[in-house]
Design goal:
Elements lengths: L1 E12 L2 E12 L9 E11 L3
Length: 50
């Protein structure tokens, strides 16, 4: 059973909009051959609005 927490922020670099985000995941319980421990995630998305 994973527990997740994440956050993101919309930023502007010059005229370019960018969404930056990150999160953590911790596995409270898993099968013997399943995932365990801590995981990290980082994202960056370039936004091109019309």
């Amino acid at each position: 059973m994973p527990v997740n927490a994440s956050a993101s922020k919309l930023l502007r670099f010059g005229t370019q909009l960018v969404s930056l985000g990150g999160g953590v995941r911790y596995w409270l319980d898993s099968p013997d051959s399943g995932p365990e421990g801590l995981g990290l995630r980082f994202t960056m998305t370039l936004l091109f609005p019309r």
